[in-house]
Amino acid sequence: MAFIRVLVMLGVLAVLNPPAQAQDYPDRALRLIVPFSAGGVTDLVARIYASELAKGLGQAVVVENKTGAAGAVAMDAVKQAAPDGYTLMLATIGTQAINPALLPNLRYAPGDLDYVTMLITVPQLLVVNAKSPIRTVAELVDHAKKNPGKLSYGSSGIGSAPHLAVEIFASRAGFRAVHVPYRGSSQSITDLIAGQLDFMIDPVTTTLPYIQSGKLRALAVSTPQRLPALPDLPTIAESGYADYDVGVWNTIAVLKGTPRSVVKRLAAESARILVAEPVRRRLLDVGAVPVPASPDESRAFVEREQAKYLQIVRDANLKVE
After folding, report:
1. What pLDDT, in 10s, does the model give residues 108-145?
2. Residues 279, 284, 288, 290: is their CA dihedral positive or negative?
3. I need a surface site. Which of 55, 221, 253, 295 has the fewest CB within 10 A?
4. SUPFAM superfamilies, from UniProt (predicted)?
């Protein structure tokens, strides 16, 4: 009985005095690991988020860019840290959904992380050369079907989000086209403008300036909502392909095993950040749509995306050489 009383008292003390780690969090600077180089849109989004998170937590949040090995270098940095909420990961559609489906020898697993929040989605645009006679999704599909296997499209690489966006679209529309992979979006857009490619799907962050300058023509948006910057442009779903929704997305995550109280604190701060109008405006200005979501909602979303891209990779028999 005495032993039981001791256990009860210990339990009460644990409730009244939670672990110092959760109680005092945070008491030092945090790190936000980003699997992209500095200077790009993803890095800019990370720095906007880190700056606002630092204000809420009262501690510095240092962005560390760790590129290479399909996100594995960034994941290694997170896995080598303690699961204490002081090392965050900007996890992406690539690290969490596409790479696990495409790369059989990936040295990390998506399950290594717990999610704090969704961060942003970036719509993609279906575009053609501004001099192309094609002006609608229907015209592109009709032209592709009349010329099977003759149209070409570019992407930022095999298994990239733009590549798989076209694979999904072509499968739904019932046509075949030749994929021309590049090492990034800039050269593929250059070749599209030069007439070396027929069409492509790429994030609005890279395509919109060329649309505004009259070098590319947008046919449709890849996500369900129209863009404020192009309010008359229909979505692919509106153009006859219901439920088509292929955007690029980022989440904020921590190492699995991080105390739930710490995750909740980070989630609460993240929700505050992502609904704040000044932050929303800054993100929207670079083409990123803020997506506040709870940890459970974020995990469910990522799991749906993982299943979707695994099926896409299998159906298209995609392989990285």
Report:
1. 999 999 999 999 999 999 999 999 999 999 999 999 99
2. positive
3. 55
4. Periplasmic binding protein-like II
Cα(315)–Cα(146) distance, integer angstroms: 23
- CATH 1.20.120.1200 for domain 124-221, yes or no, is no
Q: In angstroms, what is the C-alpha Rg of the chain? A: 22
- Closest residue by Cα to residue 302 from 133, 97, 125: 97
List, in order, residues 6 or more apart from 114 with CB less than 8 Å away. Answer: 253, 254, 255, 256, 257, 258, 263, 295, 299
Helices (H) and strands (E) in the chain, counts: 13, 11
What is the domain class of 28-122+248-316 according to CATH?
alpha beta
User: How would you label 152-177 residue by residue, b for 16+ Cβ within 10 Å and e otherwise?
Assistant: bbbbbbebbbbbbbbbbbbeebebeb
